[in-house]
Amino acid sequence: MDQTVSPKSAPIRLPFDFYTLRLFGIALAIFIGFSLLLPDKFFTVRNMQSMAVQFPEFGLLAFAILITMLTGGIDLSIVGAANLSAIVAALILTRLTGPEGAGMPLVVVMPLSMLGALLTGSICGVFNGFLVSRIGITPILATLGTGAIYTGLSFVITGGPAITTTQLAFIGNGSILGLPIPVIVFILVTIAFVILLNRTVFGFNIYMLGTNPTAALFSGINSDSVLLRTYWLAGLIAGIAGIIFLARTNSAKPDFGASFILLTVLIAILGGVSYTGGFGTVSGLVLAVLSIQFLSTGLNMLMLEWFPSSAAIFFRQFAWGGLLLGVMVLNYYTEKRRSRQTGSRQSNE
Amino acid sequence: MKRLLRRNETLVAVTLVGLILIIGVNNPTFFTLGNVFTLLRTSIVTGIFAMGVLIVIISGGIDVSFTAIGVFALYSTVKLMLAYAPNAPIWVGFLIAAIIGLGLGLINAFFIARFKLPTLIVTLGTLSMFHGFLLFAIGNQIIRDVPPALTEFARAAVLQIPQARGTANLHPAVFLMVAVAIIVWLLLKYTMLGRGIYALGGAPEAAERAGFNVTRIQYFIYGFVGLMSGIAGMTFGSLARQANPQDIVGMELNVIAAVVLGGAYLTGGRGTVIGTLLGVILVVIANNSLILIGVPTVWQRVVIGVIILIGTGIPAIQERRAQKRSLGLAGG
Fold it and tell me: Are A68 and A234 in contact (CB under 8 A)?
């Protein structure tokens, strides 16, 4: 993460394992800590269940940040795209079924609504990719702009209020073999990403592009096409997240999940993803997602116990920002120490 | 002439005139002095914020925390004034808010300059920290009984022109915005620091090698944005005659849209004060007056998003063309 001494050029594989191990320790420590502090609240079956249905919402979106960050960019429009996808799905559901709608059977409409959400997310993603790769707008400003457009379109469609429908509630509340369906979706996406990033040419190209765009260009990688597909994939994930939003809350709102951008960036940084691109693993990301969920629930319970006032809910907002900065400063020092160590080792040889 | 046409300012100015003509023809009240003064009054806060953000974007960074700094400064200042000096004149309020803003801006600067962290992620973090701290530790209720100095300031007018219905008042804070704009213009055009900000945006390494103290420039930039945000936040609260801890945050996109329209582009090294001021007016009209030509207010966000894409897309396309041309020359 140090900009002067690039860790990417060093042939050591140490940081990969180091980050993952450290993170595993952190996640475990947080979990045990809260279990000891709040044995009859945190360490209960009920809390495990409620945490399990909460994390897939932002956990899925963290994958969108992961791949865009791997290429050295970022996608700030994912929450807007996810809400727009949820609204499209909710519209299809409410307009085509029920007594006021077209009266079509739910078995047909349900897959249709999901397809609509995935398609919406894909279009949003491809548009981002087009702006970043073909027009050449920096990812931050391009996705800031499209994020406003996607959220804005959601407001235009709904006129402001939420669209409510309970037709997907069985996904949000249901479980298969004891596992909540949102968790299963999260696991499937995780597996897909492990394969994609480690076993495919596309995955290799993403890392390559993020590590050294010039080298990628000269090794014949079509960086425009890689970028386009990366942002498309981020949009597709936003579409999946949109379906989960709708299924979990039984409603589609234009301004749902306002804190998710900060949360997903925090997860990526905590998970060891490099913001300059080229570095980051799925295992790190998943451990960071779990850590954040434990922290979120645990902090909430602690604050309610210690400061039972209305202001307590705002403490988390403060804590997330502080944690993000803290982790980055910590990474700065570990990186510095490591580069000093490898530097002295090299001079000894 | 060709160069003039190519410039962002010209493009924004032409768009602005076109938009004004369309709105004015459809709705003659748009041209009344009362409406012009009201639009000016509405653009003050965005304008002051934009002058800070302009400097950041020229330097190749971005700040998304400035709205949180603004509301933090406003709310804390009003609370301080009510507790210790309820009858203090308005300039005391502005001074306190400016100091608070400067302090918070320097926190941003510390993380960015000391640890060389990316500006977006740092300010994303401090946005959440500052706003969270304000709501958690300072207060989360709207203060409606503001010190009398604020109420007086809200009613102030330097120019009162009687109209067919009521009077058109020109608010003195308009001059505050103009003064800030002139200071930033002088800073960018005539000082070494200003050169340094452009150089940093053009190529940070080259700027360092040319002898600019990048760390010091970054401290200045983010401190200055904080200062501007404190003043803008105080202006917002004074004009609204209340301190609402949930206000202002969310205005980021409007300000950033105005700045990128002014030709400031996130790869840095460009951007002008005049262009940004034109951008501010365009954004304010887009937000307040599009309804006069039948564009419903729910489209506001979409319009702002489109403005950002146009403002960043045109220079990006120009840059690509220039690159291709130079590559072609090198090859031939």
Answer: yes
